[in-house]
Amino acid sequence: MAASSSYMASTKFSMLGWLGKGNKFSKSNSNSSPSTISAQQQAQVQEQEDMKAQEAAAPGQEKAKQPEGTRLRPVEPQVNVKSKNMSREYGGQWLSSATRHVRIYAAYIDPVTCEFDQSQMDKLTLILDPTNEFVWTSETCNKVYACFQELVDHYEGAPLTEYTLRLIGSDVEHYIRKLLYDGEIKYNMNARVLNFSMGKPRIMFNNNNLDGEVPDAQ
Amino acid sequence: MQGRLFAWLVKHGLVHRSLGFDYQGIETLQIKPKDWHSTAVILYVYGYNYLRSQCAYDVAPGGLLASVYYLTRIEYGVDQPEEVCIKVFAPRRNPRIPFVFWIWKSADFQERESYDMLGICYEAHPRLKRILMPETWIGWPLRKDYIAPNFYEIQDTH
Predict the structure, then answer these.
(1) What is the ipTM of this complex?
(2) Quick one: CA dihedral B145, B150, B151, B154, positive or negative?
(3) pTM, full prediction
(4) What CATH code is assigned to B4-93?
(5) Distance CA A164, CA A17 (A)
(6) What is d(CA A83, CA A175) in angstroms, rounded to the nearest whole number?
(7) Residues of B numbered 119-158 whose beta carbons fall under 8 angstroms of chain A's beta carbons: which are they?
(8) pLDDT exceeds cutoff 80 at A113
(9) From the CA of A138, how many Å to the nearest CA of chain B?
(10) Where are the alpha helices (DSSP H) in chain A?
(11) Residue ranges of region Disordered (chain A) (predicted)?
(12) Is the confidence at residue B97, as pLDDT, over 80?
């Protein structure tokens, strides 16, 4: 079972609408150079697949760009990340959109230590399915990350508000539902809470056997 | 049908139009936005010292936005206080209506709600911002041409 995964994308959202005091700082999009999966990261991926996800912000796997040149542009992993800007005087700056399978935070969350760095508001972190309602493989995870990256690029220039993050989260959820109906992901029957939140399984649930393979009753 | 207030206002030369009586017998008048401020002051001086309710609605898609004020007079020993209902119609593209908070204090939150739901801008409001929707919401939810974005629902209905 794949553990919950996280993905970080840097974003070109305009912050002009956000900080009302005219604090205009435009962030530059740090397009990380393509990096291939190193052997050590692969091992880290393997052992984290055995972990079960617990509460919020469970650590995920580091994601790296595929050598085939998909659209994933992850942010370089950072060392010595400390939780910043989490205290009360920064209250109201915790931009997030959280639904059952998709949690997007406008911060940098370290995947290993779960330090939540709020001051880096030019990055969005996606935490995918922390409750493991579906069975994830790394390809399906990467598909969702690619969709997320596309959406972030599409929303470039939009004000960085919870409304926008909610729109992005909803689009990712619709993409996950599409993957479910196409049969690429399945419900996890060992999940702690099994309530089929994206529709109960039906006959012909996965559209890829539409060519009449359902046998007739004899 | 026109009532006493209408006759009184005509006598004082204020521009308005009567919209008849509603089912409870409350007289309804229509005032233009640019006259509303002076008319509100005059009504307050006349004796309507209590803004019972302020609401707003969308008349038709592509039409006007209406802001409705129910005024009444609070005084002692009166069984049936006088009431009047004022409707101010504002154009949809640039709906600006003068703010009567300075006359009747109860208009504060109610006009913020009208702003939040329909987008009617009230001039000279000290704190005109959204009161029901989240502050970063885009769009005016109760307008007839508002389409909610396709947000994800928590659970599909079975």
Answers:
(1) 0.72
(2) positive
(3) 0.66
(4) 3.30.460.80
(5) 12
(6) 31
(7) 134, 136-138, 149-152, 154-156, 158
(8) no
(9) 24
(10) 39-48, 138-154, 162-181
(11) 24-78
(12) yes
